[in-house]
Structure formats: C-alpha cells, structure tokens
C-alpha cells in the first residue's frame, strides 16, 4: 500500500469566508441583552444570583431545614427516563389544555409567591402581565406586595387566582374572599400545608427581614447591588399589600395568618362563602386528596410547598400518580415542586397531572430582568415543552401518557 495522499493547503477566498462571518446583532438594551444570553431557566437563575442581594436570592432559592425535600424533588427529574415513539407526525404541536373549565395556552401557570416586589420592583403586576401575554393563569399570594385590586386593575383581561390562608381571624379571611370576588378573581387557592411557618435556615443565617433592614451587612451588600437598592428605596415600601389596612407589625400579621387549629370543616365554611372555583394546595397523600374533594374542592395541588415547609416531606411527583388515579375523575389535579424546564412539565403531565404550577422558575426570570425576565422564562419553558413533545412523538397534551416516562431505578 502506497502513502496516503496529503490534502492540499490553500488560502480561503474572501467570498468563501463572508457567509461564515455572521456576528450576532448587538442588542442595545442591557436587560434584553442580558436575557438573550439565557438559554434555560437555570441560566436565568445564575443571572439572578448576580442581580440581587444574597438574602433575597436565598429567600427564593432556599428551602426548609437541611433542604432535603427540595433536593429530592430536583433529583426526581434527573432520574426520569423518557420513552419516545418515532415516525409520528409532529409537524404541529398543540400545547393548549383545559384547567378549571377554561382553556390555558400552556399546561402550566404561575403559582403564588410572597414578597414578589422584593425580587424586583415590578413585582406582581409584571408577573401578571407576563402571564396574560402567555395566556396562562397567575395566582396572587395573600403575602403579595401588590394588592389584589391593583393587580386586577392593571391586568383586567387575564385569568387571576387568589391564594388564601385560613386565619385565626375568620372575619379577615372572609373580607379577603369578598374582595377577591369583587375584583374578578376566578379561583381561590387555599394553602393548607402551613399550620405554622417552616424553618427557613437560610433566612435565619442571612438575618432577612421584610422589608430588608439597613444593618451593617445590608449596607455592605448595597454597595455590590446598587441598582436593586435604588429600585427598592425609590418605589413604595414592601408590605402585605392586600392587608395594608390592618394594624400591627408584619411579624404580628404573619402570626395571625396561620391557624394551627384549621380542619376540613373550615374548608366547608370557605366553600359556603366562595362561589367561584376552589383549589386546595398542599395535598401530599391520597386520603387528604379525597377528603378535600369531598369537602367541595374543585382542584388540588399536589405540593410540599417547594420544600419550604416540612423538610423530608414526600416528593410531589412520587405522590402524583396515586392521587390522580384516586380523584382525577372528580377534580382537576395540579402539581408543583422542582419544575425548572418544559421537559419537567412534560414529565408531570405524563404522571397524571392535569396542570402544573411553577414558582422559582419565573422568580429567577423576574430577578434577572423584571417583567421581561418572566417573559423569557415562560418562552424558554414553552419552547422546551414543544420540543420535548415532538421528540416523544406526541402532538397534543392529552397524548402524554405514563408509558412515556420511567424512573431509571425501575427499569426491568
């Protein structure tokens, strides 16, 4: 065998180089430029960490105790194996799905989060506007920093839910229910996994207060995040806006909010005074799911509060199939916890969820770029969901089945 012929070298012609020289267009707006670099929600999280004080980021990013429950939720998704079908026509994909009797453009909505203007001064109104553009529901928290009336006035033509706790003072709860009805909220989201507050150790270590206190530590931090502090100090003070007419400190309001004596009978009371849809959030087992549906719930959210209440609580995705089988013919089954991508949403739907709620995922977008950052988070997750559906060989949400997923430790 003779020697192999050597390739002849030559200088490329300018006409050959020109098509290869395609620099990205320069984006003038700094926020748009920053968000364009994010290719995933996790990338938004990395940007968010650089944009806000550590105590604010940790409040969003952290969980209860040793954060075991939070970590297990994330680990669950890493252990999932997809099983696609091939040679299916997926040239068009439909992500629309019904929830509570009305259509949502995507099978996921934005769950309730507290102190949202602490993450970015545009806060709840920015989140609600992004949700409206995406055609998905948004749940405003009782612990929100914008009143339910202000959100409704700012975004009237959208699907708005209001999250509620059962207070020790039932008349205060009754007043919020009345205001939600008058402001046009379609559903109440009753959170039931908070008889007391969970141990948020990151917040303890960071000395977090609401609003943030100007201690020596925060003053030093302010020098590193001047734009965040300027926005905080030049906009209305952080407060529980839907309760701003109540007397007392924020600590006293929190103490009055959670009622450790609440029972299923109180759910019946709420059902009597609220004529709209009723969602019960924080269900973690079949028996409780059946009990709240029997008491009048139209939907349940299988949730451990994002791992922020009881550490070592069950992983919602592990409880989801049994709960969906038990009550799926009688109520909508929603789920949250650890969802950071459109692929994660697809997993939840395969396991029996009718709809998914996200929390940290859109808050990372909010911290990274305000309202536009929430838009970016929703856009990224929608693209990932469509791509996952196409690669699985399905073209509609109702085609996602449990046969498409399997835990790797359950192969056999």
UniProtKB/TrEMBL annotation:
Glyoxylate binds at residues 59, 165, 200, 305, 308. It comes from Rhodococcus wratislaviensis NBRC 100605. InterPro entries: Aldolase_TIM, Alpha-hydoxy_acid_DH_FMN, FMN-dep_DH, FMN_HAD, FMN_hydac_DH_AS. Residues 33-410 form the FMN hydroxy acid dehydrogenase domain. This is Putative oxidoreductase. Keywords: Flavoprotein, FMN, Oxidoreductase. Its cofactor is FMN. Pfam families: FMN_dh.
């Amino acid at each position: 065998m003779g020697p192999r012929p050597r390739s002849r070298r030559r200088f490329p012609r300018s006409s050959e180089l020109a098509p290869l020289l395609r620099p990205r267009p320069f984006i003038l707006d700094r926020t748009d430029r920053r968000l364009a670099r994010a290719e995933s929600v996790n990338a938004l999280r990395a940007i968010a960490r650089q944009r806000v004080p550590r105590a604010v980021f940790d409040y969003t990013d952290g969980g209860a105790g040793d954060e075991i429950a939070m970590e297990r939720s994330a680990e669950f998704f890493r252990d999932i194996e997809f099983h696609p079908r091939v040679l299916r026509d997926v040239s068009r994909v439909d992500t629309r799905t019904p929830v509570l009797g009305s259509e949502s453009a995507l099978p996921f909505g934005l769950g309730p989060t507290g102190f949202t203007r602490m993450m970015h001064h545009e806060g709840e109104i920015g989140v609600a506007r992004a949700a409206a553009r995406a055609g998905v529901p948004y749940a405003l928290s009782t612990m929100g920093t914008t009143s339910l009336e202000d959100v409704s006035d700012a975004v009237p033509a959208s699907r708005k839910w209001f999250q509620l706790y059962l207070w020790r003072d039932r008349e205060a709860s009754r007043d919020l229910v009345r205001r939600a009805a008058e402001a046009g909220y379609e559903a109440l989201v009753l959170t039931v996994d908070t008889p007391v507050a969970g141990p948020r150790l990151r917040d303890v270590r960071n000395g977090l207060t609401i609003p943030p206190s100007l201690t020596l530590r925060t003053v030093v931090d302010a020098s590193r995040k001047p734009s965040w502090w300027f926005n905080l100090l030049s906009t209305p003070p952080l407060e529980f806006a839907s309760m701003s007419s109540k007397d007392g400190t924020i600590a006293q309001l929190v103490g009055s909010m959670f009622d450790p004596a609440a029972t299923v009978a109180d759910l019946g009371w709420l059902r009597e005074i609220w004529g709209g849809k009723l969602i019960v959030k924080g269900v973690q087992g079949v028996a409780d799911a059946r009990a709240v549906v029997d008491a009048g719930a139209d939907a349940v959210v299988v949730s451990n509060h994002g791992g922020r209440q009881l550490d070592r609580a069950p992983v919602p995705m592990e409880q989801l199939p049994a709960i969906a089988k038990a009550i799926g013919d009688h109520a909508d089954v929603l789920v949250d916890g650890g969802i950071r991508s459109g692929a994660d949403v697809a997993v939840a739907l395969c396991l029996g969820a009718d709809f998914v709620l996200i929390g940290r995922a859109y808050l990372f977008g909010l911290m990274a770029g305000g309202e536009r950052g929430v838009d970016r988070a929703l856009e990224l997750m929608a693209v990932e969901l469509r791509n996952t559906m196409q690669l699985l060989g399905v073209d509609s949400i109702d085609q996602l089945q449990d046969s498409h997923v399997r835990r790797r430790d359950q192969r056999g």
